[in-house]
Amino acid sequence: MTPQPFTVRWGIMATGGIAQTFTKDLLTNPAVRDAHDVAHELVAVASSTSKDSALSFLEKVKAPAGVKAYGSYAELVNDPDVDIVYVATPHSHHFQNTMLALEAGKNVLCEKAFTVNAAQARKLVETARAKNLFLMEAVWTRYFPLSIKIRELVKSGIIGPVYRVIADNSFGNDGPNGTLTFPDDNRMVNLDLAGGSLLDLGIYSLTWLFQILYHLQPEAEKEAPHTVAAINKYSTGADETTNIILQFPKHKSMGIAMTTLRLATDIDGHNSGGPAIKIQGPLGEIQVMGPAFKPLQYRIVRKDGGGKIEVVDYPIPHDPERDWGHGMFWEADECARCLRDGKKESETLPLSESIVIMEVMEEALRQGDVQYPPLITTDVYDPKSPLNTGGK
Predict the structure, then answer these.
(1) What predicted TM-score, i.e. pTM, was given to this entire model?
(2) Would you call 112 a catalytic residue per the annotation?
């Protein structure tokens, strides 16, 4: 007799685009991606502004009947039917919103970037551990079968020791007269929403550096990197272009993470400019074709390969019933398996690693003199913060 899959009941905090994409992935058939041991149930969604916004969200994602709609985050985190909360708010809100859920005794999957600074990340981890709750940063790319395969290839020594990783995740939003193509209050450049290229886009460049150069280090030899950054700021004070060099001197390796709001990584959408990520060793290199957040192909170029390139495609599984499949379901499956197995964090992205990544981003922003307002940088939890109540 086939055992029933372990089912996790989700609550969705926020109703924006990324929440919709994640929820539509949750509602796809797990069998399409060959996942038979776990399943997902959408229990509730909450908007901080109105119940109508939550109801509209349910229509957009074609949610099944019976899903609850709330007009406040407090109602969501206090719903006894919710096992885990997906925090899909802007970076600026992550700390207060995740603390709200943790304090209510809920497990949490929090969108990247985890927080605005490292102190907030440490506080979240400390709280989750004190309350014996599961917590994970939603860096969905880490859980792609393609990413898992590349980590295995690197560990196998196929290109020898990795000495350098170069990664770029950029979008061309350059407009007339030096302005960008979105208004200054857009979340991408609004300091009140922790805007800027690094926290939103550069996190994916850093993801590739960290999952190869840091994550694969033996635990006994873990070495946090030295960070050197250069930043060009936009008129709002947010970073528009950020380049970071990470140095791991004990491991003789370096990584270069790039991001900008001015130029696209891939100018024509067909990878004509080459790979977005290059993982380089003395025996060859692994090239990952962009975008960095949703790669669908990698290539292996061997030093002794005689000019031959091995090309491997990894398409995203598609659910024909819902006509959908984006790739965020793999991180949801990871959450379900961790909850099933009693794990409080993911081995693929340990909480300690999320903290180190946050330390790197904080240091890069410090070097570039990017400063966010106190409301979103404090590590003092306030359940009545406007970030939790929507200003109500």
Answers:
(1) 0.97
(2) yes
